[in-house]
Design a protein that fits this description.
The chain is mostly helical. About 65% of the residues lie in helices and about 0% in strands. It is elongated.
Length: about 90
């Protein structure tokens, strides 16, 4: 079962990534006068993302990271109830 804290962290990570993607897509079409503000905001969002990644970094890179495990548990409650072909079909 996924803890409330883990769900909250997952939601926080997703909420941080969404505006980063929007800002990166908007940057090429932005007026030169607005570009520095967007670049500052994008840099801050990247820094926050990197800090969150470090929090979830696995101690052994061969292991599944906690972020992946948390995401799979949150998004695939069927895990443990379906076979691998059924999970792959999802």
């Amino acid at each position: 079962m996924l803890t409330v804290e883990a769900k909250s962290q997952l939601v926080c990570c997703r909420q941080m990534l969404a505006p980063l993607v929007v800002e990166q897509q908007r940057l090429p079409t932005t007026l030169a006068t607005s570009r520095p503000r967007i670049e500052v905001h994008t840099a801050w969002l990247r820094q926050e993302r990197d800090e969150m990644d470090r929090e979830f970094a696995p101690p052994d890179p061969r292991e599944f990271g906690p972020m992946l495990a948390t995401t799979l548990i949150a998004e695939l409650p069927e895990l443990g109830h379906l076979n691998r072909k059924q999970i792959a079909a999802l």
